[in-house]
């Protein structure tokens, strides 16, 4: 029997950590992840990162980026903020992401005031310049990361989500899990067994399963926190004191990905 074709069916970049993602048909792969992915981050006045874990309404922050970073609040007219994507002046700040101390550039008072008005907490927006080296959480010090939790890419198969949704009273969309790469054509949780894959012309190492926090419980269209799908996932995807869904990847090279690219399982 012929093997089914596995292909890339979704691409998403998340320019601001924990804000809404941008769905793409084609995306540039850089050493830090998809172009623009998590190069901006919201943090408190002490430089500690802030996410939907504590502020689920961050899901409502809509983002577009080119030479300008444009922020707005879903469903709120006249809420837009435009800033130069890269600050003209490098005002250095020390920030912390899961214990990783690194240097960032402030996006300025205007962004801080906008975030305070929406989130109700003292917050600031920062940018990771190319000069900042934050290594991935996999013993590969030479591989840089952005402000993502630990790895540059997250992959989930459509079949794994379908398996979960078959167990839920109310199905959830893929954006609850915030993957960069979505694939179709494989069995549920086949990605758990992959060690190395090739998507288009780019080779990826499958570094580690993704342990899930509370964010999949946030409805991304409303910013409201709920118990599902984590409650159900815990009944069959819980081990080593964590809930697992998706795989973290590291790219061995740069290039371009496009929806429809073939996924080859090399190991």
Give a written overview of the molecule.
InterPro entries: MoCF_Sase_C, MOCOS_middle, Pyrv_Knase-like_insert_dom_sf. The protein is mostly beta strands and 267 residues long. The protein has a single domain (7-265), classed as M1 Pyruvate Kinase, Domain 3. Helix content is 9%, strand content 39%. The chain is built from three helices and 23 strands. It has helices at 109-119, 158-165, 230-233, and strands at residues 7-13, 22-24, 26-30, 33-34, 40-43, 61-65, 68-73, 81-84, 92-97, 100-106, 124-127, 134-135, 144-145, 153-157, 181-184, 196-199, 202-211, 218-219, 224-225, 238-239, 242-251, 255-258, 263-265. The strands form six sheets. Strands 1, 2, 14, 15, 16, 17, 20, 21 and 23 form a nine-stranded mixed beta sheet that branches. Strands 5-11-10-9 form a four-stranded antiparallel beta sheet. It has a three-stranded antiparallel beta sheet with strand order 4-3-22, with no helix packed on it. The longest helix is centred in the middle third of the chain and has 11 residues, at 109-119.
